[in-house]
Design a protein that fits this description.
The protein has 434 residues and is of the alpha+beta class. The chain has two domains: 38-145, Rieske [2Fe-2S] iron-sulphur domain (Rieske Iron-sulfur Protein); 165-431, Naphthalene 1,2-dioxygenase Alpha Subunit, Chain A, domain 1. It has helices spanning 17-20, 22-33, 160-164, 169-176, 198-205, 210-214, 216-233, 240-244, 250-256, 279-292, 294-301, 348-362, 367-382, 415-431; strands at residues 9-10, 13-15, 38-42, 51-57, 60-66, 72-76, 91-93, 98-99, 106-107, 113-115, 141-145, 148-152, 183-185, 190-194, 259-261, 267-270, 305-310, 314-317, 322-330, 333-343, 390-392, 401-402, 407-409. The strands form five sheets. Strands 13, 14, 15, 16, 17, 18, 19, 20, 22 and 23 form a ten-stranded antiparallel beta sheet that branches. Strands 6-5-4-7 form a four-stranded antiparallel beta sheet, with no helix packed on it. The protein binds FE2/S2 (inorganic) cluster and fe (ii) ion.
């Protein structure tokens, strides 16, 4: 019997089955990931016609490809003959066409059928070359915001810009920091399979208090080395701050990390890292003021978002030039893809800063992501326990200000987590026709 989603979510708590029920997970793929905007990639991944990257949307294997006209298409990765996948690599160039490795059907870069071997074998059958049933199917909609490509598999629903709402800051804050107003992707991705439900990742991105507890030991270790270097040489590389700031007292985190909660489950968490004052950053600031004028440049560089989370699958750190996207695999496993970017027109030194952060937080050697992964594993193992049926989201409940629409959560409130579950319930109810 199908689970009724409304029975699982209350204003300040959710049922443990949300993380542990395989049938519910299938409902989520169908009603959330296959119905809303899903991030496919950045247009700089596809430099020339025929460049493609494979991507998963819900249960659907897809291909993002640049076509002959330069436009980006998102196609189902399935041959309409007998169903074989057309691209099996993560990325590459397919030339002027896709050709199926099984019986040689060929398609143009918009998915249209170009030819089949022994075509006259189809005379007087139900198959015709012009029937769309025998072309590669396309995603219902593809839209690009400042170079970031999203697709959705159903026609109905808001435009990408409407859906993003105020969370457009994810991309505006990142791109505006470029002297050319654009970023390019670095085509190297950390991929991690987490042995936990996808929602644990999404909640963690906006769980402002966890950093001061989970990452305290990494922060303290970095702070000790930073102080030794400072004493010995009078200076310490600015990247130590990425980690040593995590040793801030918990009360300081709570005070700094205000959340802004948008419709559709999106949220923005304020930044806690101070802008470095090293020579490379000062030179970058000079270039920005020259390019935009002092007032505009200072407004851009003063924007203060640490994380912007786009529910259900994306987390962007605009100042740190990083984007994480999740692909749910099973109820208790999730693939995360972690990308970083380069500001067009900024120096190599500014890029190295982003690279340092990317590796310090996400590389296989880091303590930071490893500590997060350990917590999510523990949560996944804990939610099967029947000691209680409920997971608590009480912190700060009822203290949100603002609204309707956008609310503000203060003092380490779990407001953005509750906001995610409001969106979850909307998607699930709509999908189940309630
Ligand atoms: S399955 Fe693709 S040509 Fe037969
Ligand atoms: Fe963390």
């Amino acid at each position: 019997m199908k689970t009724k989603p409304a029975t699982l979510v209350q204003p300040d708590r959710v049922h443990r089955r949300c993380y542990a029920d395989a049938e519910l997970f299938e409902q989520e793929l169908r009603n959330i990931f296959e119905k809303t905007w899903v991030y496919c990639g950045h247009e700089t991944q596809l430099r020339k016609p025929g460049d493609y990257a494979t991507v998963q949307i819900g249960r659907q294997p897809m291909i993002m490809v640049r076509d002959e006209s330069g436009a980006i298409q998102v196609l189902y990765n399935r041959c309409p003959h007998r169903g074989a996948q057309l691209c099996v690599r993560r990325d590459g160039n397919t030339g002027e066409q896709f050709m199926c490795s099984y019986h040689g059907w060929r398609f143009n870069l918009r998915g249209g059928l170009l030819g089949v071997p022994i075509e006259d074998g189809y005379s007087n059958t139900g198959m015709t070359m012009t029937d769309p049933e025998f072309s590669m199917k396309r995603a219902a909609r593809v839209e690009i915001y400042r170079g970031f490509v999203f697709a959705r598999l159903v026609e109905q629903g808001p435009s990408l810009v409407e859906w993003l709402g105020g969370a457009r800051a994810a991309f505006d804050d990142m791109c505006d920091r470029s002297p050319e107003g654009e970023v390019e992707i670095i085509p190297v991705c950390h991929r991690v399979v987490q042995h936990s439900n996808w929602k644990l990742f999404m909640e963690n991105q906006v769980d402002v208090l966890h950093a001061g507890v989970t990452h305290e030991s990494a922060g303290r270790a970095a702070m000790a080395v930073e102080q030794q270097l400072q004493q010995a040489t009078g200076t310490a590389p600015s990247e130590y701050k990425f980690l040593s700031t995590l040793a801030l007292p918990l009360s300081k985190f709570a005070e700094l990390l205000e959340s802004k909660n948008f419709p559709n489950g999106h949220a923005l968490i304020a930044a806690y890292l101070e802008q470095p004052r090293d020579a490379d950053t000062l030179e970058y600031e000079r270039v920005m003021r020259e390019r935009y004028g002092k007032k505009k440049a200072d407004e851009i560089m003063g924007r203060n978002a640490h994380h912007v989370v786009l529910y259900p699958g994306v987390s962007v750190q605009p100042l740190l030039l990083q984007l994480r996207v999740i692909r749910p695999l099973t109820v208790d496993s999730t693939l995360s893809e972690i990308w970083h970017f380069r500001l067009k027109g900024a120096s190599d030194a500014m890029y190295r800063n982003a690279l340092q952060y990317f590796n310090l937080i996400n590389s296989p050697a880091t303590l930071v992501n490893a500590d997060d992964l350990e917590n999510w594993n523990r949560c996944q193992r804990g939610v099967v326990s029947t000691a209680s049926e409920w997971i608590s989201f009480h912190r700060g409940c009822g203290s949100e200000t603002g609204g309707p629409g956008v609310t503000i959560g203060k003092a380490g409130s779990e407001a953005p987590l509750r906001n995610q579950y409001r969106a979850w319930l909307d998607y699930m109810n709509q999908g189940e026709g309630m």
